[in-house]
Write a structure and sequence with these properties.
The protein contains 8 helices and 2 strands. By secondary structure, the protein is mainly alpha-helical.
Length: 153
């Protein structure tokens, strides 16, 4: 899949709220259920387009687990459209993005400010990344598990 399968609106939300996770939390908290579901699906689709998590990613001779590979891909998406596009089109190998994730390589100039990890609602602690905050907000607002709602159990 190319970079066009993820909507501009999704990327605009990430860019407009970055680096304050509480700003993303607030935006999600003001949106209808369908928007939260679409946001979660877009985030998941963007991450899945980077790698088959079950195959792992090889970094410095070590093959990462499925969970670690998924975490890496979610992190890449959270860094914004620029880094994600570089990986998805093949300009930047996922292995090099992994080195950035680990702090072993510098981030590109357009990824200058990491997410702060601060949330306003104590009920959202444990969901302190741009890829997981939607799940905490959804649970708080609708008393449902978003993954189950979307069919991911």
């Amino acid at each position: 899949m190319g970079p066009d399968h993820v909507s501009d609106g999704f990327w605009e939300v990430l860019e407009s709220t970055r680096p304050r996770l509480s700003a993303l939390e607030s935006w999600l908290g003001s949106q209808p259920r369908e928007v939260l579901e679409a946001f979660a699906l877009a985030y998941e689709s963007a991450a899945e387009s980077l790698a088959d998590f079950s195959e792992g990613v090889s970094v410095d001779g070590e093959v990462w687990s499925e969970d670690s590979t998924e975490d890496l891909c979610l992190w890449v998406v959270g860094q914004g459209r620029g880094l994600w596009t570089s990986v998805v089109v093949g300009d930047l190998p996922l292995e090099e993005a992994a080195r950035m994730y680990l702090g072993r390589a510098p981030l590109p100039p357009d990824v200058v400010t990491p997410w702060d990890g601060e949330v306003s609602d104590p009920g959202h602690r444990g969901y302190q990344s741009p890829g997981t905050i939607v799940h905490g907000v959804y649970r708080t607002r609708f008393a449902e598990v978003l993954r189950e709602r979307l069919g991911g159990g």
